[in-house]
Amino acid sequence: MGDRRKGPPLLHDRLREVKARDRHYLFVCSQNKLRSPTAEQIFGDHPGIETLSAGTNHDAETPLDDEMLRWADTIFVMEKTHRSKIQQRFRAALGGTRIVCLDIPDDYAFMDPDLITLLQARMARFLLRAPTN
User: Fold this and answer.
1) Three-class DSSP labels, 30-84
2) C-alpha closest to that of 39 among 87, 110, 101, 94
3) Which Gene3D superfamilies match (predicted)?
4) How wide is the angle at C-alpha 101 spanned by C-alphas 95 and 104, nearest 5°?
5) Percentage of the residues of the chain whose pLDDT score is greater than 70
6) Chain center to CA of 15
7) Which residues, listed in sequence order, are joined to residue 53 by a DSSP beta bridge?
8) What ranges do the domains of the chain cover?
9) Given 25, 45, 100, 106, which is the most exposed site by the fewest CB atoms within 10 A?
10) Tens of pLDDT along 50-88?
11) What's the DSSP call for residue 86?
């Protein structure tokens, strides 16, 4: 005889589905040339995370838009000014999405080892741990 559950799935089944879903992390800087693309690249292969990056400036490599903000579960900005710009220009698209400021100044080149070290340290608490066997 098989298991014939009726009604809504058990809570642990629903939690497993939620845990299995990738988290969507959006990284934002001003021009989307150095800091946020570095973050997108280094965290893009991390288990359980999908990443995008954008810039707050209108002439950014990839300008930030409403669709990206709605996609994101968490938005990581490099400076407080980025958070302010997002809150002012995109209030409706934000909803209740959390914005975390990483406090990373515009002092680094793309994929600079010091930038990578700083990003990894600031992001450590937001990363899923890889499963152990």
Assistant:
1) CCCCCHHHHHHHHHCCCCCEEEEEEECCCCCCCECCHHHHHHCCEEEECCHHHHH
2) 110
3) 3.40.50.2300
4) 150
5) 80
6) 21
7) 27
8) 22-124
9) 45
10) 999 999 999 999 999 999 999 999 999 999 999 999 999
11) H
